[in-house]
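Weekly structure sync, notes
Attendees: PL, DS, HV (note-taker this week)

Item 1: VOC family protein
DS walked through the input record. Source organism listed as Saccharopolyspora halophila. Sequence as pasted into the shared doc:
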Amino acid sequence: MNDRLITHLRHLDIAAPDYAKQHEFYTDLWGLTPVAEEPGISFLAAEGSPEQYVVRLREAQEKRLDLISLGAADETSVDAMAQRLAGSGVQLVSEPGTLQTPGGGYGFRFFDVDGRTIEISCDVAVRRHRRIEEQESVPIKLSHVVINSPNPERTRRFYERYLDFALSDTLFHPNMGEAMYFMRCNPQHHSLAIARGPHVSLHHASFEMRGIDEYMRGTGRLLRNDIKKVWGPGRHLAGNNTFSYFLDPHGNTVEYTTELELLDEDTWHPHLYDFSDPEVSDQWGTANPMDEFVAAESFNDPDRGLFVAPPV
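Item 1 (cont.): predicted structure, written out as tokens:
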């Protein structure tokens, strides 16, 4: 779709009480690079990504998802999106203007229908990045973010109506109904997915690796360091991507992935996949079963930051 105002996913910002543990995990183990720091805040880049940073950590008394950042092509697109949202009664957190985060740029923030803070920006300076070499098991980029909602149908409608996201595929279960919507803002199968959960929270954040070998080496590094594995390694049917899910020190699920499907949007038709079929969840049959433990970990803790803008 050439008329989309949103182009891609930029970064995920999270807060937690034990900042030092989070920082150590995301840098020493997960493989991100600190690019800017001040007391209680750090901006972490993926070595293969032109984005200034893909994760921002902040020290706070309560764990929360601070915001999800999305990219737009130019100031005209940012202004048009702000006008569209404000004109429809969506609460803006800030008006379009110059950003004070690394790389600068132009953007604004608003609350989505569930109360998450979303940022839309353009003209952020491109970070000098590099090619990830063979056997180098560090993330290339932030691949996608999955969010939990007790009313995923409403959340899906919000992102379709106001942000021009399109449905790629749906997961359903005979006893649960539709459980997850995979949403795209470009030819990548999904940059955002919306899962049915008991409360609003972060389901997981996924990071793209160079290839299968690098993905497995990264998975092995986390296992050797006794990081709690939630699910994997395996390969999904929806999106055709690999997966290994782990818990960060504060219980957020993070994923290594690779080979997420790129779609021909002119010919693509969404599928309805029954994930009670084991091959839908894991084509290879190598992952531990999708059971109540896996589902419960992905529910995460209720987000304490709904309709409250982060201080940074």
